[in-house]
Amino acid sequence: MSKQKKLDVVRLEMAAGRLRALAHPMRIAIIDMLTSNPKMSVTEIYERLGIEQAAASHHLNILKNKGILVSKRDGKKIYYSLKNDALMQIVDCLDRCDTD
Question: Per-residue pLDDT for 85 more than 90?
Answer without folding.
Answer: no
